[in-house]
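Batch 3, record 17
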Amino acid sequence: MKTSGDSGFAFPDWAYKPESSPGSRQIQLWHFILELLRKEEYHDVIAWQGDYGEFVIKDPDEVARLWGARKCKPQMNYDKLSRALRYYYNKRILHKTKGKRFTYKFNFNKLVLVNYPFIDMGSTGSGVPQSAPPVPTGAGTHFRFPPSTPSDVLSPNEDLRSPGGVFSAVARRMARGSVSDCSDGTSVNSEIEDANGGGGEERGGERGLNGGGGGGAGYRSIIHPRLSHESLFRMYGGAGNPNTHPGPRGHQGHRVHPDNLSPFPVSPLPGPGGAGLLAPPLSPALSMTPSSHLPYTPSPSLSPMLGSHFSFNPEDMKRYLQAHHQSVYNYHLSPRAFLHYPNIVVPQPHRLAHDNRELGAERERGGGGGGGGGERERERGERLGLNSHRHPSPLSQSHSPHPHSAHPHPHPHSHPINHPLHLGEEPTHLPPFKFKLQPPPLGRKQRDVGQGHHPRHSSLSSGSGSLSSSGLGSSLSFGSDLSSASGSASGSGLISNSSSTGSLNSAGLPKIKVEPISDIESEEEVEVTDISDEDPDDRCDEYDLFSPRHPRPRPHQPPRHYPNGTSHDEDLDEDVFKAPAPPPPGLLPFFTSQPHASRGPPALKSEPAEPGDPPPPAAPGSTKCIPLKLRFKRRWSEDQRMEAMEEQDDKKVRGEEMERAREKEKERQHNGGIEENGASSGPSSPGQTGYDGALPLAQRGVSQELHRATAQLSLENKDC
DNA sequence: AGCGGAACGC
DNA sequence: GCGTTCCGCT
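Prediction for the assembled complex:
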C-alpha cells in the first residue's frame, strides 16, 4: 500500500479509485442525498418518507442549494439537481415515485450501499427516526481496507499519539458536514456552521468528539481526503464510536426495527440479529452483504479487528474473501469477482460472536423537524454569499459524552502498522471488487437510433445507434455485474453502466448487459456499489488535483427500458423493499446448493418478495445426496463453466478490462511467488483459521488457494 | 413537475 | 465517470 508514503494510510491501492477517474472521487449526488437524509438537521429539507428507500425533498431549492454548496456550484438549482437525479434512473440508483412530488426512491435492492450498511430508512410516518445511523457521510465513503492504525489513517501531520489528535481531526472533518467549504473562501460550510453558532454545534451528534481540536481552521487538509471518518469510526470502534452514534442521537445504534425498516436485510438470520451489524467494513463486498450475513468467524484475530484495526493477515483476508464470496452468492453476483481466486471456498458462515455494532445508541429524535415552514429563509436567488443558516441544530444532538470511548486504539498492542501478521512483502492486487450497476434499461428512445435530432448539435457522436434494444440479451444472464476491475486502475465510481456502452455498441458488439425484459429486475440483480469512492473532501479547490480527462465524445445515454416512462419496477422495487431480509446466506450452503442458480436469465426470477436472496433451491438434480467430494467437483465444474461463460460475456463487455486484470494477476503470481509461499505459514495451516479443520478435503486445496491469495494481497500491501 | 438529449466541464 | 447546464417537450 502506498499509503505510508504520501498519505500514511494502510490501504491497498486497490482500495482506492484510480486517479484516472477523478470524477468518481467527488461526492456523488446520491451520497449526498443520503447524507442529508441521515442528518436530522436536514429533515425539513429532505427526509425519508413512505416506503423504504423513498424520500421526499421537502425543500427542493434548499437541497439544491446545499448540493450546490457542496459542489461549489452556486448556480445549482433544483432543476439541475433533478436532472442529475434523473440520470440515476438509468443507473438505477433511484427512481421517481410517481405521483408524489419531489419524491424519489432509492433502488436499494439493486444498490447495496456497501458503506451504508446501516442506513436507516425508517419512514417518517412510522415515527422511526429518520436519520440514518452510521452512514458515512459523503466524506469518506471511500472504501478502504480497514486502516491498521490510526496513524495509518491520519496524515503525517496529525498528531497520532494523542487520542485527541485523532479524534479531533476526525471530528473536525466530520464537522464539515454536508456542505463543503469552497476553497475560494466562500465557505459555505462555515456559513452554515457559523449560522449554527460557532461553527460547531450544528452537527452535534457527530461532533461529539470534537472536544478540542481547535477550530476547524485548517483542518481541511489535515486528514487525507481519502480518509473516511466514518469508516474510521466504524473501524475503530464499534462501541463508543461517536459517529456510530453512540451518542445521544444514536437512535438506532442498533436498529430496533431492522427487519422492517431497513432496506437491508439487517437480520436475515435469526439469532443475534445482525451480529454483523457492525462488522468491520472490510470491503465493499463485505459491507454489501448485509452485515448480518457476514460469515465472520469469531476468530481470535477478529476481535482486534473489530476493535481497532485490521491487518492484512491471512485470517482477515480469508474472512474478507469469504465474505466477499458469500456476497457473491448471496446476491448472485457474478463470480467474476473471484476470478482471481477461483478456488477460494467460503465455508459455512459463522456468525460473529458478538456484535460490535453500535448498540445502545439511542437517538433521541427531538421534536422532529419542527414545522419546516418557519425557518426557510434561504432563497434560491441568493447564493452562497448569504447565509442561510437553516438548521439551528437541534440541541438534542448532544455530543457523545465520552468521545474517547471510541478511541481507536483499543488494542494498542496490535498496532496494525507493524502488525506482526502482516504477511507478504510484495504488493499484490486483489481484485477491486468493484460493483457496478446494471446498465440502464433499454430506452424508449430506440426510435432515435441513428437519427440525431439533437437540438443543439447534429453530431451524433458515438453511440447513438447503439441500442438495439432487445437483442442484447446475450449477456445478461447474471444479474449483477460484479466486475473485478483490474487492480488499481479501475475507475469508476460505484456505479457505472458499462462505460463504453455507446461506442462499443456502435461497433455492433453488444456491450451492455441489458436487462432483457422490462425493468423487471430480478431480485438477483442486486447491485452492489462501492460507494466508497467519494470523498467529501474533494472539493472544488481540489479539482485540479485530478488530471483532466480527455475530452471525448459522450456516448449516448442508453435508452431506458420503460417505454413511456412507465416504471414497471416501481412495484417490484417496492416489494423488494418490503421484502423480508434475504435468506441468510450462510444458510446457503456454499457447497450444497447450487451456486449460480440465480445467475440465470431474469426469467428465472420468481419470487419478487425475496430480492437479493440467495438463489432458489437447487435445481432438481441438486447435489443433496451427493458425496461431498463429488459435490465439490460438480460445483467446481459448474463454477468454472459459469466463469467461462461470464468471461465470455465479459470479453464482449469489457474484455479488455478483464484481460488486464487477469494479466495482472498472472503477473502477480509470477512475481510474488516467493512470498506466496512465505505466507503459507499463515492461514493455511490447519486449524489456524478455525475452519480449516472442518473443511472437507476438497476444501483444503481451496484453502491453500485462499491462503495464497491472502499472501498475495499482503504482499501487495506491503509497501503501504 | 418531470423527462431526457446534448454539449461541456472536471 | 459524474455530473452541470440548457433546453425542448409533456
